[in-house]
Protein: DUF340 domain-containing protein
Amino acid sequence: MFTVIGLMLGGMAIGFLLRRQEFSWINKVITSLIWVLLFLLGVEVGGNRQIVEGLATLGVEAFTITLACVLGSCIFAWGLWYLLYKKKGGKA
Structure:
């Protein structure tokens, strides 16, 4: 835990010290590292027998949670829109 926090703070300090430098290539490096991390995560998940065997159950749970979140967001967004515009006589 302290290692992760230390690395993050170290990166922030180096970024602060080098903030005037132009790093036009850094976006490509970050994108490449994210792709590598996603690939390694896939390898790790694919190698875990418990996760692979429970993938169908995880998929149903993930779909249910996603559907509930989307529906909840839509309902509350509509409610906020109604409170801000329709109830006060404003125009949408």
Summary: Residues 55-86 form the longest helix (32 residues). The CA atoms of residues 56 and 62 lie 10 Å apart. The chain has a mean pLDDT of 90. Residues 24-91 form one domain.
